[in-house]
Structures are given as C-alpha cells and as structure tokens.
Specification:
The chain contains 20 helices and 13 strands. The strands form 4 sheets. The chain has a 4-stranded antiparallel beta sheet with strand order 1-2-4-3. A 4-stranded parallel beta sheet has the order 6-5-10-11, with helices on both faces. A 3-stranded antiparallel beta sheet has the order 7-8-9. The two termini are about 35 Å apart. The protein has about 600 residues and is α/β, with parallel strands linked by helices.
C-alpha cells in the first residue's frame, strides 16, 4: 500500500509537472508551522535558480493547478516561495479506510527480505541478570520485532559467556569446598550424575566468592586459570561440571528473559565457536593477515584516514591463549557458515565501539565475511540513577534485574489498587503487565546511544510520556469499544466519515504516520522513533476523546464513524507496543 506522504508528494509533483517544472521539486513534508498549515513544500525555492524565476512565481504557478484538487483542501503560495497545504478530509478518510483493511496497517513489506542476525544478550552463565543487561535485551528485542514486521528474516542470538575464567573460578571454588566430589577424581571414568551438585542460588553465591578470592590470592587465581585450561582441553570431570553450570544457569536465564518478554531463536555460547578457532588461526597466518608482535598474534586494522589510533586486533596472546576477539571472530565464521546472514547486528554498550571496530575490520580484511555482508554496531548509553551514575541498589551494589522488575510491579500494584479499577485477583497480573511497559518504554523512549536516568516515579506515572499512559489510553479505547458492542453495535472501518472537528482530523492525520515511524525506526536503528510517534498518537486521541461524547451520540452513522476511528487507533497503538515488546491489559 502506498504511504500517505507518498500520495501527497505524487499529487503535488503532478502539479509541478503540469505547471512546466520538474516533478522532483514536489516533495511534501510536515509543516514546521502547524498553526498555519498541515504540510508544506519548499520545491519552488529550490527550483528558482534552475528556472531563473522568483520562487513565489513558481509556487503561484503550482498552486494555480491545484484549484480543484481532491487531495488538498488548501494550497497557497506564501512569500518568499513556500507552498502551504492542508489535506482534503475526504481524501484522508479514503486513505484510512484502506489502511484499516490492510493487514500491515499501510506498512509495506520489503521486496528484498534480508537475513539479519542480532546479538543482543551476552550474559555470563553462573551470574544473575542485572540492570546492566537490560538495555541490550530491550533494544535488541524491539529491533528484532521491527525487522520481522517489515518482512526480514531476523534471528536473535543470546550468545552466552560460558568459556572464560569464570568457569575455572567456579570449578576451583567447588573443589576447595567439596574435594570429595567425583568430578575432581582424575581416575574416575564416569558416568557423572544427572543432577547438579548445586542450586542456582548456591551457584550465584559461589562465583562472587571465588572472584573475590582470586583478587586477593595469586595462587588461587593461578589454580583457577589452570582449571579453565583443563576444562578447555576437555577434562571429563570439569566438562561434566561445566554442563551442570550451563543447565542450571540457562533455566534461570530463560525464566527471567521470559518475564521480560524477550525471546531468542538461538541460545549459542562462546564455547560453540571454539571448534572454529584452530582453522581460523591457521587461515589468518597462512593468508598473511596475521603476524607476530612481541610474541602475540595480531592483525593490523588501522586504515588511511583514521582520526584516532586503532590498535591491532589481537588473535592470540603471547602464551597462545585466545581472547574475546578470537571468540567473536570465530563466532562470525560460525554464523556465516550456518546462517549466511546479510547483516550481523551487535546491540552492546557504546563503550565497546573501539573493540567492535577492530573485530569488524579484521573480519573484512581477512574476508571472513562476504563483500556485501553488513557488520553493524548499535551502541547504547548507560542506564543511570537520579544521581547521574550507573543504576545501583540502595546498598550500592548492581541491582538484579528480577529485583528491579519486582520493585516496579509493586509500585504499579499499589497504584492500581488505589485506583480500584481492577478486581483484586487480577491486580497483580495487571501490575506486571503495566510495570513491564514502564520499564521498556522508559528505556526505549530515549535515543539508544544516549545515557538516561531511570526515574521510577516518572516511568510509573499514568501521565506524560510513559508506558502506563499509553496503556491507559489503549484500555480507555477498549472500554468504549466493548460498551459499544455490548449495546449491539459492530465495529466497521468502512463507516468512517469526514471529520467533524479539528481534533478528529488531527487524530486521523496522526494515524497516517504509522508506516514512516516503523520504517524509519528500523532503518535508523532507532526504536525511540516509534515511542515518539506513539506518544503523539495517544495525545491526539485523548484530545479528541475529551472533546467528543462518543457513546451518547444520537446520530448512529456518526457514532459508527467515530467507533471505526477508535478501532483503527487501537489497532495501531497495540501493534506499536507489540513492536516495542510489551502488551496492554484489558483493564487498569
């Protein structure tokens, strides 16, 4: 379905062409003076030099050809050469009827679908999810949903950290605590128990204890490094423990991601890339891409024109050990082999930009990806507390994600109970739904690359630019539509009629912005554009709602038109919040 602005531009371009000017000057844009007009065109200004005419003369010629337009109800030339426009209400209604009948609400599916892999998890096993994992999960999930809505094949990968020193630390600490376990008997040949010798709670206590010891005790750290090495060399007992750690951790991670309504198609791990490393290292050496520098194997990735120093990408340390760079490059090799993606998008902290510049350049220089494979970095800012520092607990530690979600749900539960609009037995479930909207919208409404302050009081408010405000708007619409149906009415978009007031037309015009908001958000990797659109749409609806007595309207045809408009508004709002990764309850 052709988008609204494309239709307006096409008609104005026809008018330019009819007046003897190139149709490329007929681009229509939203007005920067909404008090004067809805849309504007500056093409006459741009064409003045080409046609050696005053801009106002060109604008006048174009406007003269729009005198009987069925697309624009107003078209006027304004000094020094602007063309001010208002859309014809009936033309607008016709577009909305088509939009309502379109499965994708005027958003065009891509005619060139791509396979896109998104890396947006990255937690380490044996550790609980904390607020530092929030932005990657929320932004990545939204990008995945936007891409799929537009027709792309999008594959989400959690990419767990499971192969580093933290594994050796846990194994070492367990050995110190329970040396009698068969996992530590070198002559034991198996089989090993199916049940893990620890719970998730115990595991989450073991790791920080081991980490603290390693910082104070050099011998302990050396022992942990040796345990890591033995694990990676395939020692059976250590491998069995590693599998227990994975099983217990992943069950807990899946539970918490599910609560966040974040899902992954792949639960790949760093260890999955290990089989690709030896061949990759050999290829980098034999191809002349890598060389030794003070004993370490590196690939030079600096390029002519760099304004800052880009250090070499290290592949192996001087002792032959691999690094994150090695694993990430091997993961790219694995992804190319198994999925052949057109793009790999990493949603990670923006402070890792230099690191990913090195990895991407190395992958390209060594032809680990094809020429047209896109490697993308969506770096996000920090989630801070009101003090402007990274968000912490009141005790000063890093807050667990489930604790943050619990706190927000409790806050919403109290507000819902105080409001007395939801039955007590449904209040807690509703609080979780609304609480998730507060967290996700509070994050996504900020430009991803910028730091932002996580303000619980503001994010849980039912007023202003918040998730609960949007959900309250949707619930309000649902309530009106339900009452209309209970009274015997049926929902029909075909009943839409010419708007009767400015607020109704303003709501209609806002609805036309859905497609560009979605397409722009995905193309620019900017989910906040959907949030901005949603807030404008919700405000437009609420202005219309407060000015219009919908259900008490005696003219049944007019009432049916308004109900059709509300039904379309609900569809757009609910589709939009689904793209952001949350949903609306029936009541609030």
């Amino acid at each position: 379905m052709e988008k609204w602005m494309e239709r307006l531009t096409e008609k104005l371009s026809d008018a330019f062409e009819k007046a003897g000017y190139d149709r490329s000057y007929g681009k229509v844009a939203l007005s920067n003076r909404p008090d004067l007009c809805e849309y504007q065109c500056n093409g006459a200004m741009a064409g003045a030099k080409t046609y050696k005419k005053a801009p106002i003369q060109i604008a006048g010629d174009v406007v003269a050809g729009l005198k009987d337009s069925q697309v624009f109800s107003m078209a006027e030339a304004v000094n020094p050469g602007f063309i001010n426009l208002k859309a014809d209400p009936d033309f607008l209604v016709g577009f909305l009827r088509e939009m309502a009948e379109d499965e994708h609400l005027s958003v065009e599916k891509t005619d060139a679908p791509r396979t896109i892999m998104i890396d947006y998890g990255g937690p380490n096993v044996a550790k609980p999810l904390h607020v530092g994992h929030l932005r990657s999960a929320i932004i990545g999930e939204s990008m995945k949903r936007l891409g799929r809505f537009l027709g792309h094949k999008v594959i989400g990968d959690v990419h767990l950290g499971d192969w580093g020193l933290q594994m050796g630390l846990i194994i070492t600490e367990m050995k110190h605590r329970s040396p009698e376990l068969i996992y530590f008997k070198e002559d034991y040949e198996g089989p090993y128990p199916q049940e893990a010798p620890f719970t998730i709670g115990e595991l989450e206590e073991i790791y920080p204890a081991a980490s603290a010891k390693s910082k104070e005790n050099a011998a302990y750290k050396e022992e942990a490094m040796e345990a890591t090495h033995l694990l990676q060399q395939g020692r059976p007992g250590y491998h069995a423990l590693w599998e227990h750690i994975l099983h217990v951790s992943m069950a807990d991670l899946k539970k918490n991601y599910e609560r966040l309504q974040v899902t992954f198609d792949l639960w790949k791990k760093e260890s999955d890339a290990q089989p690709y490393i030896p061949e990759m290292v050999r290829y980098l050496k034999e191809g002349g891409y890598a060389h030794l520098d003070q004993g370490a194997l590196v690939v030079d990735v600096k390029e002519e024109g760099d304004t800052k120093e880009i250090p070499p990408c290290m592949i192996l340390k001087s002792d032959g050990a691999s690094l994150y760079n090695t694993t990430d490059l091997a993961t790219i090799v694995e992804r190319m082999k198994l999925f052949h993606p057109d793009e790999i998008l990493y949603v990670v902290d923006k402070r890792q930009e230099l690191y990913f510049t090195q990895v991407f350049r190395c992958a390209r220089k060594a032809h680990l990806v094809e020429e047209d494979t896109k490697l993308s970095f969506l770096g996000f800012g920090t989630m801070n507390g009101k003090d402007g520092k990274p968000f912490k607990t009141r005790q000063g530690g890093v807050m667990r994600l489930e604790n943050l979600m619990d706190d927000i749900s409790k806050e919403m539960y109290q507000k819902i109970v105080d409001n007395r609009s939801v039955k007590a037995e449904n209040a807690r479930e509703t609080a979780q739904i609304v609480g998730l909207s507060a967290i996700k919208y509070g994050d996504l409404s900020n430009q991803a690359t910028k730091d932002y302050v996580f303000d619980v009081d503001r994010f849980t408010s039912f007023e202003g630019d918040t998730g609960p405000y949007l959900l309250y708007t949707i619930v309000r619409i649902k309530s009106i539509l339900n009452r209309y149906q209970e009274e015997g009415g049926s929902l029909s978009h075909g009943s839409l009629r010419t708007p009767t007031c400015e607020s109704e037309k303003a709501l209609m015009l806002e609805l036309t912005g859905f497609a560009p908001a979605v397409e722009g958000a995905f193309a620019e990797k900017a989910p906040h554009k959907v949030c901005s659109y949603l807030y404008g749409l919700a405000n437009a609806f609420n202005r219309f709602y407060h000015e219009t007595k919908i259900l008490s309207e005696e003219d049944q045809a007019q009432k049916g038109s308004w109900i059709g408009l509300l039904s379309l508004t609900r569809q757009v709002l609910e589709t939009s919040i689904d793209l952001l990764g949350f949903s609306a309850p029936e009541r609030m």
